[in-house]
Amino acid sequence: MVFTEFSPFFLMMTIVSLCSVRHWVIMTGIASFFQAASPILIQGGGRMIGIPPGYVLLAVGFWHFGKICLEDLTPGKQRRAAIVINGRLFTLILYTVIGVAGSLFLPRLFEGQAQIMPPGLGLDSGITERLEPSGTNFNQAFYLVCNFFLSFFIYAFLQWRLIDLATILKGVTIGVTLSLCFGFYQILSFHVGVPWPSDFINSNEGIGQQYEQTFAGLNRMSATFQEPSIMSMHFLSAFGVAALGLQNWRLALPILVALIVSTSSLAYFGLVVLLTLWILLEFPSHGIRILWPVALLSLIILLSWAVDNFFLDGQIIEFMVVKKFEGESGMSRLNADMSALDAFLDTYGFGVGIGSTRASSFAFTLLATMGVFGAISFLVLMMSCIVYVWREPTKNARGLLFGLLGLLISWFMAIPDIFLPLVWLLVGAAMSNDLIIRNRPSRADGTCSSINQNVKETNEMY
After folding, report:
1. Percent composition of the chain: helix, strand, coil (DSSP 3-state, to 5)
2. CA angle 171-413-241, nearest 5°?
3. CA 175/CA 4 separation, integer angstroms
4. How far is CA 6 from CA 12, 19, 200, 204, 406, in A?
5. Rounded CA separation 52/32 (Å)
6. In this structure, how many other beta carbons lie within 10 angstroms of the beta carbon of residue 293?
7. I need a labelling partner for 105 at 20 to 30 A (CA). Which of 49, 137, 277, 389 fits?
């Protein structure tokens, strides 16, 4: 095991997380935006493997949960209410069981019968192999279990009223603010020649780091993520939280600028879809009041188009939007998706097991790996969460709704990975029956005051 240059910063986050449940939730939200980093590297499968900091902090979540359970066993102490398993939590359990069981048994059941694209190879390799069990199945099953416990802890702590939704969104807004600072510094460092702290930001050697990508003479912003597409996914979610939910335009506008200068097709297509959904969902209840944000966003997008045409001869729009699916990248993605679909059909709809293959997006990866049952359970979980959150007419709930929609849109468009802590942090909140907690939690659990006093409820109605 090797400690990276990110480990001192992570140690500070861990110490803060130990202060209270609220601190742990905020630090987990922040850590979710440092996807390219890892505090430790572990030897596995002949190479060094890093663990995203959001998952390493899960150990602190276990500590808090265990501490609370032990306190409830203290004689004479009033016990907290038992955790209620509602339909959304049950569906998450079902999805996790299907995924973990499939990763263990499906590669052995269909060994040699299906062609798969090894997850460790790039989409442009075009290489397919016969299905066989591998260590990647166990790695991905581990992350499925981590995803479950992350959502479960958020669900339980909300039910016990140790945290509120404002706490969760606070972590997201702080996390994206830090990531934005690094992202704009990355652009500056490329053009001015100042050093980029890759040993700190891109310390996870187990994943392909693409922070040096360029397009049309511009450095493609990846900020604290391994590549621009994954950054766009998280920034779209943060834009949904800040702009479409909390209406915090001081934060939303820098996020929008970052999405535009990222030169990521996912950022452009995802932004259009997310804004379209926002208009469709909000116009019936808010009418013309949403027209000024639409006008502002349209003006910024129009100015960006003008800058692209004037300074870059329209290369960004031409190659990243109009001709995105006509080039080599588009064909590689199409071939990967068709290969995943073939794996799904070759296994009669059961899938080849999580970690056996990959496609260009989560939709095809989900079908190919977890089959019909896994896909259905996932869709039921997400749709039930979205419908439930949509019924809450508060700013925080709207932030959660559009933050979750931003992630799902990006996921189904272009991101095949399952180890994304931010997704499951928001899913845990959306599963809770006590989505919006009106009363601030007491400080009887020993919370530190430095962050608690700064976490404000923004539950006021539109």
Report:
1. 65, 5, 30
2. 25
3. 20
4. 10, 21, 5, 9, 28
5. 8
6. 18
7. 49
pLDDT attached to residue 49? 82
How does DSSP assign 51-112, residue by residue? --HHHHTHHHHHHHHHHHHHHHTSTTPPPPPPPP--HHHHHHHHHHHHHHHHHHHHHHHTTT
DSSP string, 352-380: S-TTS---SSHHHHHHHHHHHHHHHHHHH
Tokens linked to 38? 């890892």
Determine which helix (DSSP H) or strand (DSSP E) holds 134, and give its type and residue range: none
Torsion of CA 272, 213, 221, 426, to 10 degrees: 70
Strand partners, 130: 115
Write out pLDDT tens, residues 57-79.
Answer: 999 999 999 999 988 887 777 77
CA–CA separation, 409 and 411 (whole Å): 5
Is residue 240 within 8 A of residue 405, CB to CB? The reply is yes
Q: Which residue stretches of 319-361 are H helix?
A: 328-346
**Lowest mean pLDDT across 50-64, 98-112, 444-458:** 444-458
Q: In this structure, is the dihedral angle defined by the CA atoms of residues 281, 287, 293 and 294, taken in order, positive or negative? A: positive
The secondary structure of 2-36 as a DSSP string is EE-TTHHHHHHHHHHHTT-HHHHHHHHHHHTT-TT
Burial class (CB within 10 angstroms; exposed 0-12, middle 13-18, buried 19+) of 273: middle
The C-alpha atoms of residue 335 and residue 291 are separated, in whole angstroms, by: 41
What's the one-letter identity of residue 142? F
Interatomic CA distance for residues 58 and 428, integer angstroms: 14
CB 22 within 8 A of CB 160: no
pLDDT tens digits along 344-378: 999 999 999 998 888 888 888 999 999 999 999 99
